[in-house]
């Protein structure tokens, strides 16, 4: 066999290995996203865990507290514009916000550390993507510290009584997001 045929065969084998790895990754990632969802009641051995209050800021600089949404289910998502996994789930949040935003309060909390992430970079990304969900800025890192959101993205599902029902660490897909919202809807 000449070198040209060997090279072609090696390239075909290499392409097959890459395609197989991609398929396997896709399958495992879909299963892993379901595992990322934790039911807080099962984790703690109690029915629910009370959500701790925090203060963030809207785009106009107004203070917003989690407790101001008591009486309505809340989905909290910690994210940053430089975070690839955060960006990968934003379309899912936008879709569910448009679908359920009247019944569920979405708090898309930008971890605004003012060095790697600024309000300007976050708003630029949000406007560029034409997202309509409400964005809040954690400029004092109050919310991030309160919820120990040191690894992002992180999502919390809070019922209308102000209890954390479930949380997800890492990027979640639409099915996991729907599952979490279903857990907090009455």
Topology at a glance:
Blueprint: H1 3-36, E1 37-39, H2 40-44, E2 49-50, E3 55-57, E4 63-65, E5 74-79, H3 84-100, E6 105-110, H4 119-129, E7 135-137, H5 142-146, E8 154-158, E9 163-169, H6 174-184
Parallel strand pairs: 5-6, 6-7
Antiparallel strand pairs: 1-9, 2-9, 3-4, 5-8, 8-9
Structure notes:
With 186 residues, this protein is α+β, with helices and mostly antiparallel strands. Strand 8 and strand 9 (163-169) form a beta hairpin. It has helices at residues 3-36, 40-44, 84-100, 119-129, 142-146, 174-184; strands at 37-39, 49-50, 55-57, 63-65, 74-79, 105-110, 135-137, 154-158, 163-169. The strands form 2 sheets. Strands 1, 2, 5, 6, 7, 8 and 9 form a 7-stranded mixed β-sheet that branches. Strands 3-4 form a two-stranded antiparallel sheet. The model is unreliable at 19-35 and 40-46 (pLDDT under 50). The termini are far apart. It is built from 6 helices and 9 strands.
């Amino acid at each position: 066999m000449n070198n040209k045929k060997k090279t072609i065969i090696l390239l075909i084998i290499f392409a097959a290995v890459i395609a197989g790895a991609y398929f396997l990754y896709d399958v495992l990632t879909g299963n892993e996203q379901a595992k990322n969802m934790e039911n807080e009641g099962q984790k703690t051995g109690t029915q629910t865990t009370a959500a701790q209050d925090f203060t963030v800021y809207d785009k106009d600089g107004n203070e917003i507290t989690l407790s101001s949404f008591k009486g309505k289910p809340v989905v909290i998502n910690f994210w940053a514009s430089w975070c690839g996994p955060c960006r990968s789930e934003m379309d899912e949040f936008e879709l569910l916000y448009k679908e359920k935003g009247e019944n569920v309060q979405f708090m898309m909390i930008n971890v605004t550390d003012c060095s790697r992430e600024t309000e300007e970079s976050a708003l630029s990304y949000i406007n560029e993507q034409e997202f309509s969900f409400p964005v809040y800025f954690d400029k004092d890192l109050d919310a991030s510290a309160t919820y120990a959101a040191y690894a992002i993205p992180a999502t919390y599902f809070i019922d209308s009584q102000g209890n954390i029902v479930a949380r997800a660490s890492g990027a979640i897909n639409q099915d996991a997001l729907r599952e979490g919202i279903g857990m907090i809807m009455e």
